[in-house]
Design goal:
This protein is α+β, with helices and mostly antiparallel strands. It contains 8 helices and 9 strands. The protein has a single domain, classed as NADH Oxidase (3-Layer(aba) Sandwich). Helix 2 packs across helix 7, helix 3 runs antiparallel to helix 7 and helix 6 packs across helix 7. The structure holds flavin mononucleotide.
Length: 240
Amino acid sequence: MTYGDDFQRLSRYSRHSLEGRSLDWENKPPLYKKYPGAELFRLSEPDREGGAPLNGILQKRRSVRNYNSAVASEETLSQILWATQGITLSTDYHQFRASPSAGGLFPVETYCAINKVEGFKPGIYHYQVPYHALALVKEGAFGLDLARAALGQKMLRDADFNLVWTAMIERSKWKYEQRAYRYIYLDAGHIAQNAALAAVSCGLGSCQVGAFFDEEVNRVIDADGEQEFAIYMSSFGKPL
Ligand SMILES: Cc1cc2nc3c(=O)[nH]c(=O)nc-3n(C[C@H](O)[C@H](O)[C@H](O)COP(=O)(O)O)c2cc1C
């Protein structure tokens, strides 16, 4: 099979391929996913100026796969979520986030699978970017399901919380068509790295997870696997 090679070749830009393209503004997909009626938990205001100096954080960051039994604080969760996609600039026409995104289309959604965080029941939550809040998608401890879905990687079971990133692919395809599949992964990489660095600043460790059975992760977060599908995960906890 060569579909990866084919994709890379077929999704190349050439001067010719960009000719005559225009955007259908009337059918631009919405920027934010909503959960009408879901219980909403406002997160505390993140620290937008302080934190540990960046160079020291870069030096310290390692993938951490063994966590102790400590419970993460709400402030830590808030800080890490803000680092993923929190709004850092609002203008009349656009809201910019902590991570860059191709075309400012922000196709990546952040879910938080909470195992143990102060003040939260275990469950799957969706990060509501405009409100810096979590919407409860469903209650329950899904760490073990995520660990199983991630080829048995136990750190997802032991983590204080796991972040799962999905792509709402139409948001990016609207502009980039098939090339969107390149950009969603680049976007997710930026987001996950921001989260990993914020975790170090908060005294937590994290590990990025690309190895998982896609459909099993989609089921955990209730993504349909077509319009929206999981592309990346990270686990977070206090290093053992
Ligand atoms: C795209 C990607 C996917 C990864 N998937 C996994 C994974 O499924 N399981 C795991 O234990 N580590 C995973 N890692 C972590 C790498 O193994 C780790 O970053 C690498 O060994 C370098 O170590 P460091 O992160 O401590 O610098 C992944 C990292 C990236 C960037």
